[in-house]
Amino acid sequence: MEKRIVFLASGRGSNFQVIMEKIKEKQIKANPISLITDNPDAFCLETAKKFNLSSRILSYKNYPKLEFNEKLEELIDKDKPDLIVAAGFMKILPNSIVSKYRYKIINIHPSLLPSFPGLHAQQQAHSYGVKFSGCTTHFVDEGVDTGPIIMQEIVPIVPNMTEEDLTKAILVKEHQIFPKTIQYFCEDKIVVSGRKCNIKI
Known about the structure:
201 residues, alpha/beta, Rossmann fold, seven-stranded mixed β-sheet, two-stranded antiparallel ribbon, 6 helices, globular
């Protein structure tokens, strides 16, 4: 039985597009159900239309935080997902959703966690002067970018590399490991033991 996937996104959704392409090409065997966005102007809505995927807009500015979280949970529950993919969703999911879908929510972050969690991770890494950055896929828990790490990919920071250069280089790696992570999940190859994720190959 193919896994039912709900996508959450707030912006351009380039990772969302790459994953949808892999599903269309049957490299990921999954059943995409819907896209939910908090931004009515997000480009990811155009991507959903391109793939004939149902989309729902839940504009954050139209609701108090508690009501927004309740409505988001209702929308997700309605679609009965096996997996929730946070592809650039710029809101912290409430504990009620995280606990209900434990180890069923996957996010990607543009740093080598646990270094540089939160916003502007590329800027943080570039300003700090580290020699390596990268990206991380992980399960979402109640913290900010603190859930069990699934996959990571390294990006060397070379001399004269700008923050924009770093961001672009990391995005290339994101487009590689995010679909691969989703594929492994859909093939039941990710085994969680405490904080550690092992992949059965």
